From TrEMBL:
PANTHER family: RNA HELICASE. Its EC number is 3.6.4.13. One of its GO terms (molecular function) is RNA helicase activity. GO terms for cellular component: nucleolus. Residues 869-879 have a biased composition (Gly residues). Residues 18-140, 222-248, 478-510, 798-908 are annotated as: Disordered. GO terms for biological process: rRNA processing. It is an enzyme of class 3 (hydrolase). The lineage of its organism: Eukaryota, Fungi, Dikarya, Basidiomycota, Agaricomycotina. It is found in: Nucleus, Nucleolus. The keyword Hydrolase applies. It catalyses: ATP + H2O = ADP + phosphate + H(+). This is ATP-dependent RNA helicase.
Length: 908
């Protein structure tokens, strides 16, 4: 498809601008000004030299709107709030001279006298294109994307940025086989032939020997159930009373904490032992589904639970005998799985539980619900409880729910024991369970372990063994020495050795991590340019999926509709019909690419369909715009790149690692890109220091003094040039055209404009919720609102569009209440616990802390507003207020620009 914009990856060396000078004195700044002027001259010359006819034949011209005399752009956004510009440049990390130089250049260039590049030589924007679609919509303003724009430093984008060999890949070497770890031949056969998994990963190598070391002895004599009143336990001769609890637990496996990198195969690490342990039970004559549930896996979201259940189903579909093997003893298909996430009706789920489901995968709220209200749910004999994505469970506020689940399971067990004893006493007991003394093994899994996970571990695990991923060479040593499970001390928590720093979160070593210091005004076009480069470089094998993270549901919705609705010619920018049920859009600026979105406020069916569409095998690249709902656990195949357009507002470095972990999984390559604002560059060093190196890379670099993980800067100019192509500075004109097309789309209808303003407001509010620790880099005061508006394709800051009109609160409340209800109904969990929260909906629940901080901040501002007598909203253009122009955040709206400014500056 001809998208009307060329993709040209050749970078003209001769036209590269020199780096602005570094240092903090006025002489340096004068030098920077001089360089800027020289650059303008050089650009002029270059453009004169580049005749359009000399363009390579493979390059496609920018869509040709008729050129008209340029209308001068207005002087640098007169509506900039006081202090905003300064703030945009401040706050940088002075230890990174290049970054601070960039920030200074923002100021110098913006305020430097003399002609701007666009005034001198940039092809003029086409006012006609604007006017055609904006008749009667107020004054025209020409996009001034590159004029008066912060100059950006010509950072040379380097090649490979990976720091080591794959750290989450299957291990190499003959000694590293699934069979060697003690896995049943049936499972080995299935993994190899049906799932194409030939060797274990580091965490599997580390944990499987232990987890497979206690098979159930199906020939064991039945024993009486245990309880505190037992006088004797003759069949086992075990001690009685208090000691029994310990004894009981020691007879089985100790509880386990599994911590390893994203994409390292934790799911199979706990599923394989569960399946292998339970499988032999099917040979027992008395075993049928009425035995109830023997293993429970808890995952924080529906998507994750569904994903785990799919892997489990796949495992359970294995052949029950080896081809050609002759044996009298066959397993039966007793072992099945069930998904309990609130997606189906409860009646249906209850019916399934009544029949019996040996292994269930559930979200926490729904599981607790069944434990409390479904009496036919037999789970007193459960042998395994897995808490997957432990950190996410805690983030989502499931601590109490998990406590409830553990208590309920203990209660069920007691009831089952009592029932068994009663049957025994009356002599009618025919079904005797030989595994009462085994207890229940709890496994906790997480890629990152922080204080919250430690709290969950303390609450749910007894005497745990901690497993971390082993590096390749370490494995060899262990395997040679001892084929049995690594020696475990009999008491106290122990930790399997790992060379990685356990206190740091380690991204996969093969992951390339880059950041782009992007002037706020250029964010949107830089995103487009980056996506264009990424989609054009994708290949089926290496992956052709890209995930873009944004900070809120509103910004996801807006960018999705904007990309899908924008037109690059003069065609009417009609409002595109996009209902909540719509799955996929395409965009003229991202050829042959489908664009999906994912956030917690979408109906479950839409979310499922979006994910399915995004992951479907296709030659066409695919982009998923998502909130943090997509950051944990999701194992989406062929994700080649993760772009963090908005850096995480919650979860800090931890969240960053989870997000980038959606690519570079199981040893595959991947790219991570982070958009960093000029005032946010200190974040780079901060996040680097929070991350540790993995396994063997940590070994090799043990003596390195510098920060362990490095993010590499990519030049914004390079990105723009690559994405938009053309010779010399042509990319500027192309980027400007794209920006103008976006702006036309916004102006095309009231609802488009309202979406843009809503997204802008949501971004602002999300931004203000960065935790205090991150405030040095993400302070709302440092946001240049005028430039930020530009990045939302708004021609003016929403705050300055106000006419002083006030709105009544009442009319706003209805849609907000309706939205909340929708959120709750379609919430990720759909779960009681979440629904009980006043704000409902997973997305809202997920941002509990965020919302608390945010609401506190906005409430504070709200007081200011109310003290002024009114509670208002971002109002529409031309004094006409749109119905939908609220801030998207519920009851808190801000009246006008002064109020926003006051909120940001902390003035009364
Ligand atoms: N031994 C193996 N060899 C090759 N691929 C594997 C192996 N084990 C698991 N995988 C694959 O690795 C991918 C990631 O696995 P999984 O989702 O379990 O990772 P994870 O550690 O749980 O990651 P996250 O922390 O992001 O949830 C899956 O696609 C899985 O099929």
């Amino acid at each position: 498809m001809d998208d009307g914009i060329e993709l040209n990856f050749a970078v003209s060396d001769g036209l590269k601008r020199k780096a602005v000078s570094k240092g903090g004195r006025w002489t340096d700044r004068a030098a920077a000004r001089k360089t800027a002027r020289q650059n303008v001259k050089a650009a002029q010359k270059a453009r004169r030299d580049v005749a359009p006819s000399k363009m390579p034949s493979h390059q496609v011209q920018v869509p040709s709107a008729p050129r008209q005399p340029a209308i001068r752009p207005p002087p640098v956004t007169p509506s900039e709030p006081r202090g905003a510009r300064l703030a945009e440049q401040g706050g940088g990390d002075t230890s990174r001279p290049s970054d601070s130089a960039l920030a200074r250049a923002v100021l110098e260039h913006a305020s430097a006298p003399g002609p701007s590049r666009s005034q001198v030589s940039k092809p003029a924007p086409q006012p006609s294109a604007v006017s055609s679609s904006t008749k009667g919509k107020g004054p025209q303003i020409i996009s001034s994307l590159f004029s008066s724009n912060p100059s950006y430093q010509a950072v040379k984008t380097t090649g490979s940025t990976v720091i080591g060999a794959p750290s989450n890949a299957p291990l190499k070497g003959d000694a590293n086989t699934f069979a060697g770890l003690g896995l049943d031949p049936l499972l080995v056969h299935h993994l190899t032939n049906k799932m194409s998994l030939r060797a274990p990963t580091g965490i599997q190598r580390s944990a499987l020997p232990y987890l497979l070391s206690e098979p159930l002895d199906i020939n064991a004599r039945a024993v009486s159930p245990l309880d505190e009143n037992d006088e004797e336990r003759s069949s086992t001769g075990s001690p009685k009373g208090k000691e029994r609890a310990v004894e009981e637990h020691q007879a089985g496996l100790r509880d386990v904490l599994i911590q390893s990198q994203t994409g390292s195969g934790k799911t199979l690490t706990y599923l394989l032992p569960i399946v292998q342990t339970l499988l032999p039970l099917s040979r027992l004559s008395y075993i049928d589904r009425s035995i109830g549930t023997l293993a429970i896996i808890v995952a924080p979201t529906r998507e994750l639970a569904g994903q785990i259940e799919k892997v489990l189903e796949h495992l359970l579909s294995m052949a029950l005998s080896l081809p050609g093997a002759e044996t009298d003893e066959h397993y039966t298909r007793w072992l099945v799985s069930g998904l309990f996430t609130g997606g189906a009706t409860k009646t249906h789920e209850k019916a399934r539980l009544r029949k019996g489901v040996p292994i269930i995968v559930a979200t926490p709220g729904r599981l607790l619900d069944h434990l409390q209200s479904t009496s036919s749910f037999q789970c007193g004999k459960a042998l395994f409880l897995v808490l997957d994505e432990a950190d996410r469970l805690m983030d989502l506020g499931f601590e109490e729910t998990i406590t409830g689940i553990i208590k309920a399971l203990d209660g069920r067990r007691k009831l089952a024991v009592a029932a068994e004893k009663e049957m025994d006493e009356v002599g009618g007991g025919t079904m005797r369970w030989p595994f009462w003394n085994r207890g229940r093994t709890t496994m906790l899994c997480s890629a990152t372990v922080d204080a919250k996970v430690e709290r969950l571990a303390g609450m749910s695990l007894r005497d745990p063994v901690i497993f971390r991923s082993e590096a390749n060479d370490q494995v060899e040593r262990n395997v040679v020495k001892d084929k049995k499970p690594l020696g475990l001390p009999s008491q106290n928590s122990i930790e399997m050795p790992s060379h990685a720093d356990p206190d740091k979160f380690t991204p996969p070593s093969q992951l390339s991590q880059r950041y782009i210091v992007t002037p706020t005004k250029l964010r949107l076009v830089t995103l487009v340019a980056l996506l264009r480069s990424l989609v054009s470089a994708t290949s089926g094998n290496g992956g052709n999926k890209i995930i873009v993270f944004l900070s809120s549901t509103d910004t996801v919705d807006y960018h999705w509709k904007l990309l899908g609705g924008v037109k690059m010619d003069d065609a009417d920018q009609d409002e595109q019909e996009t209902s909540t049920n719509m799955i996929s859009l395409s965009s003229p600026i991202l050829p042959k690419t489908t664009i999906q979105r994912l956030h917690g406020s979408l109906p479950l069916a839409t979310r499922k369909a979006s994910l399915a569409k995004f992951t479907e095998a296709s030659e066409s690249p695919s982009i998923l715009l998502a909130t943090s709902v997509a950051s944990r656990g999701l194992d989406l195949p062929l994700v080649r790149a993760v772009v963090q357009y908005d850096l995480p507002t919650e979860g800090g470095a931890n969240e960053y690692v989870h997000r980038v972990g959606r690519t570079a999984r199981a040893g595959k390559g991947g790219e991570a890109w982070a958009f960093v604002g000029p005032a946010e560059i200190g974040w780079v060093k901060w996040v680097e220091e929070k991350m540790g190196l993995a396994g063997d890379v940590a070994d090799a670099n043990a003596k390195r003094t510098e920060s362990s993980v490095r993010l590499t800067e990519a030049g914004v100019e390079d990105i723009l040039r690559k994405g938009f192509g053309g010779s010399g500075y042509e990319y500027e004109a192309r980027a400007t055209d794209v920006q103008m097309a976006f702006e036309r789309w916004v102006l095309a209808s009231d609802s488009n404009a309202a979406l843009a303003r809503k997204a802008f407001g949501s971004f602002m509010r999300a931004y203000s919720t960065h935790p205090i620790e991150e405030k040095p880099f993400f302070h709302p005061k440092s946001l240049h609102l005028g430039h930020l508006a530009k990045s939302f394709a708004l021609r003016e800051t929403p705050s300055t569009l106000g006419t002083g009109q006030t709105s009544k609160v009442q009319p706003q409340q209805k849609p907000i209440q309706a939205k909340r209800k929708r959120d709750a109904e379609s919430s990720d969990e759909g779960e009681k616990a979440a629904e009980e929260r006043p704000r409902g909906g997973k997305e809202l629940t997920a941002r509990n802390k965020t919302e608390e901080r945010m609401y506190a901040a906005v409430r504070k501002a709200g007081r200011n507003v109310k003290s002024g007598g009114t509670l208002g909203e971002f109002s529409g253009t031309g004094g006409k207020k749109s119905n939908n122009a609220g801030t998207g955040g519920g009851e808190f709206q801000v009246m006008d620009g002064n109020e926003i400014e006051r909120m940001l500056s902390g003035r009364k």
